[in-house]
Amino acid sequence: MRKKIVAGNWKMNTTPAEGVELIKAVADLKKDVCPEVELIVAPPYTHLCCITEIAAKAGISVGSQNCAAEPAGAYTGEVSAKMISSLGVKYVILGHSERREYYGETSETLNAKLIQAYANGLTPIYCVGEKLDERESGKYFDVIRKQIEEVVFNLSSDQVSSLIIAYEPVWAIGTGKTATSDQAQEIHEFIRSVLNEKFGDLSQQVPILYGGSCNPSNAEEIFSKKDVDGGLIGGAALKAPDFISIAQKFPK
Ligand code: 13P
Question: Which of 51, 153, 195, 246 is positioned for an S-S bond with 203, CB 3.0–4.6 A?
Answer without folding.
Answer: 195
